[in-house]
Design brief:
- The protein is α/β, with parallel strands linked by helices.
- A hairpin with a 4-residue loop joins strand 10 and strand 11.
- Helix 3 packs antiparallel against helix 4 and helix 4 runs antiparallel to helix 6.
- The strands form three sheets. It has a six-stranded mixed sheet, sandwiched between helices. The protein has a three-stranded antiparallel sheet with strand order 9-11-10, covered by helices on one side. A two-stranded parallel sheet has the order 1-2.
- It is built from 13 helices and eleven strands.
- Helices cover 40% and strands 16% of the residues.
Length: 400
């Protein structure tokens, strides 16, 4: 840890601290330095040069040190977990956009091999650039071409997702997007709610692609729950841009279900990181329910000294926080009614008389809406309740 009054443009941390790190290698051998900040390409290059990385051909393999920043690490984890075509496309785009401005240092050792007068700096060397410079231009051109191709493919994915969302809206099914910090238990909760077997793992970013499942609510109606990619503090801008097609599932949802690991020592900071990311992608004003997850740890692991690091009162928002254990299925009997009430708050109140010749509309109201009163009259079925905004037009002619 270092507290900086200012960031040093060349090496981020300053020459004194850099020399201290270099000297520490004598006692603690290492070949990787990882910064919990985003390094500019020139900073990454200068730090590697300080470890003898200026001339790759002359440096002994044992002397070389690889310098990574926070973004590079996260992209590497994403690449390991991308299992679908969509996920692979999004990760590859983010990786290329990250690497493009960092290509220069890959060919530094070839830059001086210009030959002839170019090596002496004379005027006769015009056009006789080294193979490193030529290779750099070729690589840049190839990567830009690949980036353009990936963006086109991802745009096709966005169009497909948009069409899926239109179909869902026509069906009138409310959509609940499950959001939260990575490894908070979002996929485990979706499995518990829907009875499915989505891949879960006690690791960062186990889920990259959105997964949607139909869930029956206590009142008999149904909703679609979508599991989304986990958030993290200082989410790299490349990921926000590349995963736009995935993150749109959140911005288009009717309700957000924020899953928070209430036993994590940094739970408050994680909650703030999620809220900041939601604002960044334009979903900060969405209605939200909070599920304080992993409460089985606080109840069952007394010998380990595990306690909730946050309380329900801390996140109480008009009664919109519930303590649960997604793993044990505990607290869901409180969570689902809370979700149903919040979905109902976003619906339109209607009082209609549906003729017996249009029983399919009455069935639709039962399946997609929330009925508070139903009466069978001579002219048809009188229903009072709430229905999704997207379905209101189908009932307008029968309003009373």
């Amino acid at each position: 840890m270092q507290h900086l009054d200012r960031v040093y443009p060349a090496t981020l941390i300053g020459k004194g601290k850099l020399q201290e790190i270099i000297a520490s290698r004598a006692d603690t051998p290492f070949d990787v330095i990882l910064f919990d900040e985003e390094l500019r390409p020139n900073q990454q290059r200068e730090i590697e040069k300080a470890f003898g990385g200026d001339d790759v051909e002359k440096s002994a393999p044992s002397a070389l040190v690889k310098v990574l920043d926070r973004t590079a690490l996260i992209l590497d984890i994403f690449a390991q977990h991308a299992r679908t075509k969509e996920g692979a496309l999004q990760v590859e785009l983010a990786q290329y956009e990250y690497r493009l401005p960092r290509l220069t240092r890959m060919w530094t050792h070839l830059a001086r091999q210009a030959g002839g007068a170019a090596g002496r700096g004379g005027t006769g060397g015009v056009g006789l650039r080294g193979p490193g410079e030529r290779q750099l231009e070729l690589d840049r051109r190839e990567i830009r071409t690949r980036i353009a191709h990936l963006k086109k493919q991802i745009e096709e994915v966005r169009v497909q997702r948009r069409e899926h969302r239109r179909k869902r809206k026509r069906q009138g099914l409310p959509v609940v997007a499950i959001v939260g910090y990575t490894n908070a238990g979002k996929s485990t909760l979706l499995n518990a709610l829907s009875g499915s077997d989505i891949l879960v793992g006690d690791k960062l970013f186990a889920t990259l692609d959105p997964t949607t499942r139909r869930v029956k609510l206590p009142g008999g109606s149904e909703a679609l729950f979508t599991d989304t990619v986990g958030f993290i503090q200082k989410l790299p801008t490349q990921l926000v841009a590349a995963f736009r097609a995935t993150l749109e599932e959140i911005t288009e949802a009717d309700l957000l279900l924020h899953v928070l690991d209430a036993t994590h020592p940094n739970a408050r900071e994680q909650a703030r990181a999620v809220e900041e990311t939601l604002k960044e992608i334009g979903a900060g004003d969405k209605p939200m329910v909070i599920a304080l997850n992993k409460m089985d740890k606080s109840a069952g692991d007394r010998g380990l000294g595990i306690r909730p690091s946050v309380t329900q009162d801390e996140f109480e928002r008009d009664g919109k926080a519930v303590r649960i254990s997604a793993l044990k299925g505990q607290g869901l009997e409180e969570l689902l009614p809370l979700i149903e009430r919040n979905i109902a708050d976003e619906m339109i109140e209607l009082r209609v008389r549906i003729p017996y010749s249009a029983t399919e509309l009455a069935a639709l109201f039962h399946q997609r809406g929330i009925i508070t009163r139903e009466e069978f009259a001579e002219e048809g079925t009188i229903i009072e309740g709430k229905i999704a905004t997207s379905l209101v037009k189908r009932f307008t002619r029968y309003e009373i």
